[in-house]
Amino acid sequence: AQSVTQPDIHITVSEGASLELRCNYSYGATPYLFWYVQSPGQGLQLLLKYFSGDTLVQGIKGFEAEFKRSQSSFNLRKPSVHWSDAAEYFCAVRGTYFGNEKLTFGTGTRLTIIP
Amino acid sequence: ETGVTQTPRHLVMGMTNKKSLKCEQHLGHNAMYWYKQSAKKPLELMFVYSLEERVENNSVPSRFSPECPNSSHLFLHLHTLQPEDSALYLCASSQDFGTSATQETQYFGPGTRLLVL
User: Which residues from B are below 8 Å from A104, CB to CB?
Assistant: First the structure.
């Protein structure tokens, strides 16, 4: 079964600064990978996803993520954060074989933006 | 209306009450999901329905009873809940489930915040 680790529970970044949120996964092959964002009191919104091909994927709101097979990582980045980016971010992994299709989520990283 | 909607958005109930959560998706998807989100814990998958048939039940207590009358609607019936069942309940949908050749993505509703007293 797959698993996901988000090592940072809480990150604080100044507005305009760059951001990187870490995600490491465990799976016996290349999984499908996702980043979701959750604003307070809201559901999860898909930011981006990786299925195959180019390892650098672009998402909404100026976010991107890079899949690194050698490091089993799928880190989320943004060159310049905005106050509206304050939210909780979840990395998720889905297996690619029959019987292994469920999404497994990390525990999330809460992002705080300071002026 | 588009996407995945959930009602009610907030619910307070006593341990002896019976209530239902409703989810509706307007995306033409064939699979629907219930998740539980508790503080400081990863999202927990509760149930999966594919083409109106339950395909996953992740050891959820019987006080939670799902119902999927058609591919657009999903209910979660609640009875004799415990205070530890207080959480955000999220519904999601995807085009399909269980076919690894399909690179489906799950789309989530806004959730129902449940408080059990």
Answer: 42
